[in-house]
Design goal:
Layout (H helix, E strand, L loop, with lengths): L12 H14 L4 H13 L17 H9 L1
């Protein structure tokens, strides 16, 4: 499970405009997605470090219960 902690980051109005433009161009769902993509490209970080394998199905409630029993 991914826990998202809301955070406030102060940026200049012009920076927000640029971020919004990039979000639109990239068809990103959030500013967070844009920022992660930019960091990954800059640092050459593999996408696999930002969460689980997208090809995997999410765990079901039964799967989670089974793991808790271990």
């Amino acid at each position: 499970m991914v826990v998202i902690v809301p955070t406030t980051v102060q940026i200049a109005e012009k920076t927000l405009q640029m971020l919004n433009k990039l979000k639109e161009e990239m068809r990103a769902r959030s500013h967070d997605e844009v920022i992660k993509t930019l960091i990954s490209e800059r640092k050459k970080i593999p996408r696999s470090m930002f969460g689980s394998n997208r090809k995997l199905k999410p765990f079901s409630k039964e799967d989670e219960a089974e793991f808790h029993e271990l």
